[in-house]
Amino acid sequence: MSKPLPFIEIDHVDQVFDLGGGDRYIALKNIHLKIEEGEFISLVGHSGCGKSTLLNIIAGFQRATSGGVVMAGRQVTEPGPDRMVVFQNYSLLPWKTVYQNVALAVEAVLTDLSRAQRRERVEQAIQQVHLGSARDKYPAQLSGGMKQRVAIARALAIQPQVLLLDEPFGALDALTRGSLQDELMQVCQATGTTCIMVTHDVDEALLLSDRVVLLTNGPEAHIGQILKIPFARPRNRHDVLNHPGYYGLRNEMISFLNQQKRRPAAVVSAATTSTRGVLTLGFIPLMDCAPLVVAKELGFFAKYGLEAVTLHREESWQDLAAGVVNGRLDGAHMLAAMPLAITLGLNGQPSQPLMTSLVLSRNGNAITFSRHLWEQGVRTAEDLRAYLRRTGNRLRFGIVHPASMHNLLLRYWLAAAGIDPDQDVELLVIPPPQMVYHLRMGHISGFCVGQPWNSHAVREGIGVVVATDLDIWPGHPEKVLGVRQDWAQAHPHEHLALVKALIEACEYCDTIKHRPEIAQLLCQPAYVGCMPEDAHSGFVSPLDWGDGIAAAFEPRFHQFYVDRSPCPGRVEGLWIMTQLARWQLTPFPQNWLEIVEQVRRVDLFGAAARELKVVDNEPDRRPFALFDGVVFDPDHPLAYIEAAAIRRALDIQTIVPEAGASSPVTV
Asked: Which positions fall inside the ABC transporter domain (predicted)?
């Protein structure tokens, strides 16, 4: 059964303004919001973030550059009486009385009503806002609050489906504002009118709203957080102020607004600027380093002016991360969680601000058990739990780095089956190329690692794949382009050229007919240096699980470009932060939105994507679930962690990393 359509859908709205000299200013980016009939929504953000622009688009006064608004199944293309706007400056005709100003709207719109019916509608609206005694007065004879009541009465008189309020009480004194807020609340509750209000007033938003939509600062303002207001209706000011959740919500809104003052610097365009072209990029020998190898070997780096790019094969993820932090490497093929973890201070280390503006690959990992364990019937996480309880053994499993998706997904998979990954088993950090050796020697009973090392263990007959990340979280970010924040600020043109070259390389890697050629490149000793059959398994041909069951080829077991793969989505970055905090690998930042915005640079990805004329929008900001069905809501990350049955104690801090920090670090 299909879900009913929302009453209003703001459908991926972008608003771009042309500036002089061919420049453009992106005011709003990828605004997607569904509003139900009768809801009261407040748009809150700093001045200049596009709140009024968005309201004008909903009203039909302005057309979005891309995307649009659908109301009651019809696209909004122009103003209409179903949407009435109340402005801050009243917009009353000074030569008309209160009655005449209200009647002006009724006479213009409700032409099908009789004169008596129109008169009744005007009188009713005037009474709704308690202006009966002032019906024959002119605006000059009214206070500011009374003028605003007239504006509201004029809007209500035609009984619109939607009331759009653009800071309607911003110019009023506190007492008048409070009185009008109460009256508006009563009228909206009585009529069931859908309201969308722009406001800077945190307390006003909490009093009136069902949901508060918090917009980030521009350029490219977007929805940063949505707060659901739990106060029962009908409301009164006293009950709202004394609600136990009031000050928590208020503090959350103020914290959001304060974080916006420290947003990353605006994008620097580099479309026509030459680059230095000399870069050293680190990588680990894995199949998902393919975009770097393709960009180097097939000329994508050179195409964008990066003529002298050196790819440096690193011995371990620790060495690679240290190389980026200490400046030996300009950037690297990096574990997806690593820029966030190192920025937050992994394992108590000082914060070292890193960032990513590109996801290089998704998926590509597997959990492999030793054949000995598999032959004892241990083939799922539940089997493993039963085995551990039956034998009392504490088995060891290999991971590649604490800040790896291998670690986070293996922990999630184990914990979902009731296995504590720190107490019931032991997780050892082992570089990917050494996994098979340690499995062969019996030092570990399995591992979670990327290709080709799972296939290597299967080919040697010592391992069996029991799950892939398609079974745990299909489409998760696996490797990213990681650079220091200060490096990107100092080299904006090289950085943009690098991102553009790698986006094209990602697209090349996801064209299946290119995979045999890419596998041949990766087999070279300078890169992965593996056997062709290991490189082909899961990349060109079906993944061999080693269980004797024929498998079908899964083209998205390795995913580089499809489904907007290269975009470093902020919601998935926030999920990563919850898991780093869940296992006490990093503190959870109280300013989590600021950290996500600072590290996962969707704006810089978008700048490169637009120059390539490819899709630059981030995937939709919405809740999602992994294989166990537990829903992650990006507006309530702490609740997600605290609901986990197996977790460590939370360490919540405000993290404000300074770009350019250079203190020694062990990662």
From this structure: 8-242
pLDDT in tens, 130-158: 888 888 889 888 888 888 888 888 888 88
Domain finish residue from 472, 507, 523: 472
In this prediction, residue 276 has a pLDDT band, given cuts at 50, 70 and 90, of low
Number of structural domains (the chain) is 3
The pTM assigned to this predicted structure is 0.91
Does residue 267 fall inside a structural domain? no
Choose among 13, 31, 15: nearest CA to 223.
31
Average the pLDDT over 501-511 and give the result: 97
Rounded Cα distance, 126 and 130, in Å: 6
If asked whether residues 246 and 135 sit together in one domain, one would say yes
Look up residue 47 and give its two tokens. Answer: 């001045």
pLDDT at residue 185, as a whole number: 87
Single residue among 440, 472, 504 that ends a domain in this structure: 472
Residues 6 or more apart in contact with residue 517 via CB below 8 angstroms: none
Sheet holding 278-283, edge to edge: 308-313, 278-283, 331-335, 477-484, 354-363, 558-559
CATH code at position 124: 3.40.50.300
Please state, in angstroms and rounded to a whole number, the distance separating the CA atoms of residues 601 and 484.
Answer: 12
Boundaries of domain holding 403: 365-472
Q: How many CB atoms lie within 10 A of CB 293?
A: 22
User: For residue 308, with 0-12 CB atoms within 10 Å meaning exposed, 13-18 middle and 19 or more buried, which class applies?
Assistant: exposed
User: What's the Cα-to-Cα distance from 214 to each of 108, 282, 445, 598, rounded to whole Å?
Assistant: 36, 38, 48, 17
Cα angle value 643/644/650 (rounded, 5°):
85
Amino acid at 121: R
Residue-wise pLDDT for 18-41, tens only, equals 888 878 899 999 999 999 999 999
Asked if 355 and 222 sit in the same domain, the reply is: no
**Nearest Cα residue to 399 out of 389, 414, 411:** 411
Taking the C-alpha atoms of residue 268 and residue 649, their distance in angstroms, rounded to an integer, is 41
Res. 272: pLDDT tops 50: no
Q: Is residue 429 part of a domain?
A: yes
* pLDDT for 662 beyond 60: no
- Mean of all residue pLDDT scores within the chain: 91
Looking at residue 342, its amino acid is: I
Is the pLDDT at 415 greater than 50? The verdict is yes
pLDDT tens-digit map of 379-398: 999 999 999 999 999 999 99
In a domain, 458, yes or no: yes
In a domain, 604, yes or no: yes
- Measured at the CA of 191, the angle between CA 190 and CA 196, to 5 degrees, comes to 110
